[in-house]
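Work Package 3 (structural annotation) set out to generate three-dimensional models for the target panel prioritized at the project kickoff. During this period the team completed the workflow that converts sequence records into discrete structure tokens, so that structures can be stored uniformly alongside our sequence database. As a representative example, we reproduce one entry of 327 residues exactly as it appears in the project archive.
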Amino acid sequence: MRRSPLRRWGGLFAVLALCACSPPPVALPKGPMSAGPGITVVAQPVPLNPSAPQQDRLGDFTYAGGLALASGDTARLHGLSDLKVLADNRIVSESDEGDLLEARLVLDAKGRLAGIADARMSVLTGPDGEPLQGKNESDAEGIAVLPDGDRLVSFEDDDRILLYPAKGGAPHAVNSPDVTFRHNLGMEALAALPSIAPDAYVTGQEDTGQTWICRLSRACVLDRKVDVPMGAGLTAVAPLPQGRTAYLIRAWDPVRGSRVSLLVLDAKGAQVSRIELAAPLSVDNFEGLGAVPSASGAVRFYLISDDNFSAKQRTLLLAFDWTPPTR
């Protein structure tokens, strides 16, 4: 049907009026964006000491490479709060906004950390099978992988540990310490304890350093209390061979910035080794710790930082090789 000129002009005025009150169009991405969970992670090399790039030793530890991680494919590669290393250099890490990162570490010909490949990001779900909603539900702080592949994730705010079945399906709550944690100071540290039982795990309280040994089949019991200085917090734990255990302790204040300690204790709780990361070394809010023991007795440690979704911080992944002292 042919429209009259008056009707055509009326329609044009209506369109112009609609445009005048509509928000401006959103700018399109400058490059292609991934449509699925796969993302490309850009990894920039980071020296141990930017002021002395040749430095590669800290006590009993040798620096084995470091990376600053970022991605243009997602706005979710932030807030990473723990790290576990699986077979074939696969890693899993969770964020305090309820995201899960899975990727593969790339090592160079000398075995040093050189990059990240095959990265995927997904959301953590609740027992109802739906993505976790809000900070109170999604503040994931620790991750552990049991021998059968099931994964445990500890949460703050709504303090609990959820088990994510290796075969898929919705998670369910498992045993956690019968303690009322202070707000945002709960179970940061979490790791499997296969030396005790296939269903055993250790968790630790951030502000007090108290740890517990738990099992899927029985209640948690008190274990070691790690010495945590005033203003610091226990953020990660890694059981090692020969009854040793590594702990990550971090602190921050506006004057000194971030300070992080990697502490190794023997089976009786005596200190075996310790390093401190602070300026001028490459340091940020390190909260995650992965450990890869070797047959020789040496251990490769990986530390990952939680950047708090802040443009003033970085997501750093550092590697250190530790050889137990003979002294």
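Residues 1-34 have pLDDT under 50 and may be disordered.
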